Amino acid sequence: MSAILDIRDLRVTLRRGGHLVRDVSLSVNAGEVHGLVGESGAGKTMIARAVLGILPDAVKVSGGKIGFRGDDLLQLAPKRFRALLGREIALIPQDPLTGLNPARRISAQMTDMLRHHLGQSRQEARANALRLLQEVQIRDAGQVLDRYPHELSGGMRQRVLIAIAFSAEPSLIVADEPTTALDVTVQKQILRLIRQMQERHGTAVLFVTHDLGVVAKVCHQVTVLHTGQVVEQGGIAEIMSTGAAPFTRALMGATPRYDQPADALHPVPAHIHRELLAAARRFDEANP
Amino acid sequence: MTGPLLQVRDLTLSLPDRSRGKLFAKPPMTDILRGISLDLPRGESLGIVGESGSGKTSLGRTLVRLYQPTSGQILFDGADITTLDEGAMRTHRKHMQMIFQDPQSSLNPRRRVGEIVAQPVLALGVERDRRAALKRADLALDRAGLGHAFARRYPHELSGGQRQRVGIARAIATEPRLIVADEIVSGLDVSTQAQILALLNDLKQDMGLSLIFISHDLSVVRVLADRVMVMLGGRVVEEGTSADVFQGPRHAYTRQLIDAVPLPVIEPGWLDTKPATEGTRMVDIKGQTVLVTGTSRGIGRVFVDALLAAGAARVYAATRDGSGSHSDARVVAVKLDVTNSADISTAAQTCADTTVLINNAGINFNSKLLETDQVDAAAAEITTNYLGTLNMCRAFAPVIEGNGGGAIVNMASILARVNLPLMGSLCASKAAVYSMTQGIRAELASKGIAVFAVLPGAVDTDMTKDFPPPKAAPADIVAEVLAGIQAGEADIYAGDMAKGVSGGLAADRPAVIAEMAGYV
Amino acid sequence: MTGARLNWRIAVGGGALLALAVIAILAPVLAPVDPLEQDLFLELLPPWWQADADPTRALGADSLGRDVLSRLIHAARPALTVAVVAGVLTMLLGTALGLLAGYMGGMVDVLISRLVDIWTSFPPVLLAIMLVALIGTGLHSVIIAIVLIDWTRFCRVVRSETLAQTQMEYIDAAVIGGLKRGVILFREVLPNVLPLVIVLLTLEMSIAIIVEAILSFVGLSVSSDSPTWGGMIAEGRQVIHQAWWVMAFPMGLILIAVLALNLLGDGLKTALDPVLRR
Asked: What is the ipTM of this complex?
């Protein structure tokens, strides 16, 4: 299997000093869902944004490379990089409402991508948009095309965004907490849909989430992050096993479960946080 | 004092829906809570779970009288607080506090943490003196695990978890008996969330607090709640001890909720279990009371046995003359002609425990539409197939709603989607049933009633002997219908032929119609 | 980074205003000559750096030979009086009504909001001229006109901000905490609306200076013999081809005053926000 995305020693730094991502390496193969798990401040969103080239102004990549099918995205000319975005690398955003333009019909937003990136005619693009909506299991796809985003439910909007993400048959999709804003029953449908689409199209997916439960259900490979460092990396079976790293196990123990009584819940022990923070400090001292 | 700390009877809440309001007219009212009753014993905690729009947050806010209920009664510590004004409420507020969902917006950004926590202590007269109130605030901050050093800080200087501890300190500062906590850990990281939950658990035990814990997250509720209430569409669909509800949910919706929670364990095939179509709920036949019309012959008769086999608690087998007997005691014969409105209203009373309605009765004249003497046959098809089904839905929707929700299954036909020569009026009546079913689905979803349309192909019964093969066996059709209901498929295309048709309809409608026409 | 920038804004804007205020207060002391003194020999005298200048008339003289510098200094008095008094009164009226509408809601809100809608449908300058024509000229008329016209600006902004604040959960927390409605309005809502009001006040003051200039330009402000910036511009307009300085200096001062106020408002906006302040 060839790696679609190959991140090597990625370092993301605040312009006024301080690292947010500390030499993270990971690779995602075709047809594979790679989970990027961690709590807030773990650097998972920064890594995803670095891949998409949309880091905030206050932050810059200060080292490493982001290999994408042989190219280093960080060295790519802006024009070539823009050509990749949407076509080869697509995003499924977190918030299905702000992910769509409220003032434009679904059809317009779906055909944009098809017409501009793939050069399809208006009729072709509309036919393809219809086919895509059917593929993401939207009933009455023809009617939905002529609706505005606010006329759809959250789950429907997320389906539309998934359809848009897959429309140009990208080889990599970055999914940024795609189900956090959804109800739990809808979340399951959307997770299933992402997996189905990804399997059918052989797409590599970088799946950002804070939810170990979601990770267990959709990911093949997992990278567990803490303060911008890789705590653990491996197949889902290893991560979920009792042999996992102490932080991963602690996180698992701190996750409430409806099938277990309250006394099974244990907050993450302070010393585990402390050790990881100390490691981050050591890194910063070695790499000012 | 003995007796429950909080007693709620038949609480309803209607709020104006401004999104649908016209410019000058009063906006229409929307029912947010529809008859909620609950008892909360002292020192116990009640978890309220539900998805967005279930009314759980509104319920919490009504209980602490941030909202004025439309009807019903709230007894707090034996006192009726349902209609108290703000002034009279103040004497109770020190005993009932609230922790809010968003620690960012629930703390005034211009006040120091100490003042925020001391505010209810002063205003509710727990302390008269400002300095004593601040002292109490310090104690509450210590108790909330934050430390009184934080009293001098401003909310924006704190992390999310610390802010939520301030919210907790404010709620416990007056030493209340009841705390309503609304989604208080939803924005927090797992490790912070676990600490907050542990803190609340300790406080609950140390202070003998009663807790109402509202969350969309079943797992979080399990940690804190002795009892659980599951809400849907402003109603309670299931209530019980948390161990019972989470280990053996009785209601299909609860099961669906639980089934959708991704646990951090590897479970191959989890994603593919019970594919519920968006908008329609899965309905489990087990334990339901089912009314089936048209059970004298054909599919209807098969339905009765299949329902018994699927574990239905009772089956009302309706026929036009009320005849027929069954060896199983769970079957009750009902006289019901769907074209007779008196019959329908009687049935709605005698079968008042119905939770699932299967509208199966229908007639079929194979009439030639363009021959003048056949208008009567067309009218009869519309009267029985369409109006009969509609009237049954109208009569039984309130019954099912009153029983905590359930399902309505309307048997249409593949002819609702495909039109055949010589069968125009039958097609029209089936299409009418199908369209009507689509229409009422959204209306009834909010009332906890799942609505299914069944579009079987030709079935091999005495009614369809003129129709050419392929025809499916009634038992197969019925099995597919029940499977579809339990899987939550909104439109159930039963029978091999119909499956092919539904696939074909999506791809190439004219070709399907041309092929179907070849049969006649 | 943020700290340095906002200090710079407040320092420059506030400093310029303070200087203007000192000039206005000390006008009789600072002005080199009597602003009303006419000297026809000095008619349209150019400022000091040009040929034929008179060192006692540093910024030249107008068509009646009056000293431009002294007139500028004295004209700062009506301008700043109007800015401060009209600004504050407008703020008080508009904020009170805006708070009431936003917090009470219902009929009160509907009444006040409709009143604002009707009010703002008149062209403001025309309304001002009409009002002053009706109640007579003079500084107090200018102030009344500004207050009666511009309260809507405060009312609108304060109403929507109050509405936004009442959606916040800390208001619910205050109800649960036993505070009375009035107390919640003044102790919880008002402090959160106040920064916006102060920023608006600086904006309003700059508008007041401009309106006063317009009214004195058309001769509807203070009596025509006492100097105003607007009046000076009106006089200078007639001799613009012979003596640009008569018009340019008052225009420059108006520009500086308005810029200083806007700068101050911008600086205050960030400085007064507890989150941005950090």
From this structure: 0.87
